[in-house]
Design goal:
Layout: E1 2-7, H1 15-18, E2 27-28, E3 31-32, H2 33-43, E4 48-53, H3 57-65, H4 67-70, E5 72-77, E6 82-88, E7 94-95, E8 98-99, H5 106-111, E9 122-127, E10 130-132, H6 136-146, E11 150-155, E12 162-167, E13 170-176, E14 185-186, E15 190-193, H7 210-217, E16 221-225, E17 230-232, H8 236-247
Parallel strand pairs: 1-4, 1-9, 4-7, 4-8, 11-16
Antiparallel strand pairs: 2-3, 5-6, 9-15, 10-17, 11-14, 11-15, 12-13
Length: about 260
């Protein structure tokens, strides 16, 4: 089953990074967040990917063109100019890099993949900036069980702000807002049947607006409720939070060995 990764947005709230690279190429632990997402899917046996490229898509193309080289450690002896390959890391992935346009919206990027997905009864879609410890196999089981056109993964947003209790100008209590108190939001990690293309019109289609709204009204959109870890990388603070998790060995999304 093919996995579409929406990897073409501008990432304006990460401008410090995205002025020079697309958002999916921002690194966590020395690897692009795109790599982390793909490793999660591959862990469950889904290893055919379709990154839908747009803004600075050439960076993602270059990354995969040179993947076999940048996944290796090298010893360099400057005197003799000898370069020796020491270790090699290979991924059993098939990656279709498709330019879906700099200005396409989320639904528009999927719309532009219609020809490449014409033989797929069902396919997966996710954003290029979200990490999750979701069990993809169970997500697929859920989708197959309800026989509707679309499944969206519902998640709890992480706490972003400390809650203050104030009395007469003094802070009497400070605590992080609990994640479970924030309600459910769209966490990505979609599964769609091919009928989704009946709800996509052109490159300007925003998936999260008319298509999903119409599917919901028609009773064709189901939610897989995930109570585990989920975190998107919208800001520099998000990047730093994820980087810290990785560096101390507490990255919940790392489900692979």
């Amino acid at each position: 089953m093919k996995v579409v990764i929406l990897a073409g947005g501008l990432g304006t709230r990460l401008a410090e990074e995205t002025q020079v690279k697309p958002k999916p190429m921002v690194e966590i632990g020395g690897r692009p967040i795109l790599w982390h997402i793909m490793k999660s899917y591959a862990h469950y046996g889904f290893n055919e990917f379709m990154p839908a490229l747009g803004y600075k898509g050439e960076f993602i193309k270059d990354y995969f063109l040179n993947f076999s080289h940048i996944s290796k450690d090298f010893t360099i002896e400057l005197k003799s100019r000898k370069i020796e390959n020491v270790t090699e890391v290979q991924e059993d992935w098939k990656v279709h890099l498709i330019d879906t346009g700099k200005d396409s919206m989320t639904g528009g990027r999927i719309f532009k993949l219609k020809e490449q997905l014409k033989n797929e009864e069902t396919f997966m879609v996710t954003y290029g900036d979200g990490l999750c410890d979701i069990n993809i196999s169970k997500l697929l089981e859920f989708h197959k069980s309800h026989k509707k056109i679309a499944t969206v993964t519902a998640v709890r947003p992480p706490a972003r702000f400390g809650a203050l209790e104030i009395r007469e100008g003094k802070v009497t209590d400070f605590h992080e807002k609990p994640q479970v108190g924030e309600g459910w939001i769209n966490g990505g990690f979609f599964i769609f049947n091919k009928e989704i293309f009946n709800y996509l019109t052109d490159e300007s289609t925003i998936l999260e607006k008319e298509p999903l709204e119409k599917l919901a009204k028609a009773g064709e959109l189901m939610a897989y409720q995930h109570n585990g870890f989920w975190h998107c990388m919208d800001t520099i603070r998000d990047r730093d939070t994820l980087e810290k998790m990785w560096s101390i060995g507490e990255a919940p999304w790392k489900v692979w060995k």
